[in-house]
Amino acid sequence: MRPLTVQNVAEYLGVHPDTIYTMVKQKQIPHFRVRRRILFSTEAINDWIKKQESQYELEVI
């Protein structure tokens, strides 16, 4: 499976690419680098979303 770019993840999550760069810098979202490129695994992003959802549900309860 082909890795996602910052632009791909921003579109997928419905946020601005600058938000993704900030999250990467603060290590808030799973990513990896190939030289200077920031890339994301589709599986890791989907798992991260599920984790965020479950944390939100725990906070609401």
UniProtKB/TrEMBL annotation:
GO terms for molecular function: DNA binding. Keywords: DNA-binding. Residues 4-52 form the Helix-turn-helix domain. This is DNA-binding protein.
